[in-house]
Amino acid sequence: MSVPIWVNGELYEPDKAVVSVYDHGLMVGDGVFETVKAVNGESFALTRHLDRLALSAKRMDLPEPDLAAIADGVRRCLAAAPKWPLARIRITYTSGPGPLGSDRGSAGTSAIAIVGEQAPFPATADVVVVPWPRNERGALSGVKSTSYGDNAKALAYAKERGGAEAIFENLAGNLCEGTGSNIFFVTGGRLITPTLSSGCLAGVTRALALEWCGGEEADVPISALYEAEEAFLTSTTRDIQPIRAVDGKVLPQAPGPVTLEAMKVFAERSAADLDP
């Protein structure tokens, strides 16, 4: 079954859903996006994701997106899709068609929503620390931009070395984030995640994990990850996923007691409220 795709207010069959080849989302990565989870046909935390889309657009000086229209587009896509146990909603918002350079055009923005089935993540993940740092002082720091080339390169690097996710440090040598995830670890019984000033994305699942499961934000050296008692990744489609090994070094517990409790609480709270 083909699922219609929403483009600028209209639903199209996949082979008819197009944007201009001059769209700056394609040409220069001038856009932002969100990934939203859907469970049995119902989106999760859509309001938070749309709020972050608007914040990312503001930080990139893009026109303010029509969040109500995008939310309606998501609902229309979900209504036309199978009620998959787990699905991924991809929302993309770009500056629209422009010239063959970095200057933006005046033809208007592009907004797209796509829904597809998502396979569950494995019970645990091995991660690989990559040699390229995040720039916590860069113009796109903390922005969920479509300029994802560094993430694609880093993830390929990790997979070539047996990992399922790549982990970045920042220019200060501190732990930052994954390519599509935030990271938590336990040391001395303390649950810690990098601060937003580290350059990591303000993940929706990260924020909910802090609210529901506790933990603290701290700037810590990348070396702290190797000495962790337990650790886990958070992201929209994986929720909370225990980390088994870092650069081949197996952690003492995967999942450990803190991770197990966080997984339990997150599952209960997210099931009780689909738009927290």
Summarize the structure.
InterPro entries: Aminotrans_IV, Aminotrans_IV_CS, Aminotransferase-like, BCAT-like_C, BCAT-like_N, Class-IV_PLP-Dep_Aminotrnsfr. One of its GO terms (biological process) is carboxylic acid biosynthetic process. This protein is of the alpha+beta class.
Q: How many strand segments?
A: 15
State the shape: globular
Order of helices and strands: EEHEEHHEEEHEEEEHEHEEEH
Rg over CA atoms, rounded to whole Å, is 19 Å
Beta-strand percentage?
A: 25-35%
Structure explained in plain terms:
- This protein starts with a strand and ends with a helix.
- The protein is built from 7 helices and 15 strands.
- Helix 5 (204-213) crosses helix 7.
- The protein is α+β, with helices and mostly antiparallel strands.
- The model has no long low-confidence stretch (mean pLDDT 97).
- It has helices at residues 24-27, 46-59, 67-80, 149-160, 204-213, 223-226, 257-272, and strands at 5-7, 10-12, 31-39, 42-43, 87-94, 110-117, 125-129, 165-169, 175-178, 182-187, 190-193, 216-217, 230-235, 239-246, 249-250.
- One of its GO terms (cellular component) is cytosol.
- Keywords: Lyase, Pyridoxal phosphate.
- GO terms for molecular function: lyase activity.
- Belongs to the class-IV pyridoxal-phosphate-dependent aminotransferase family.
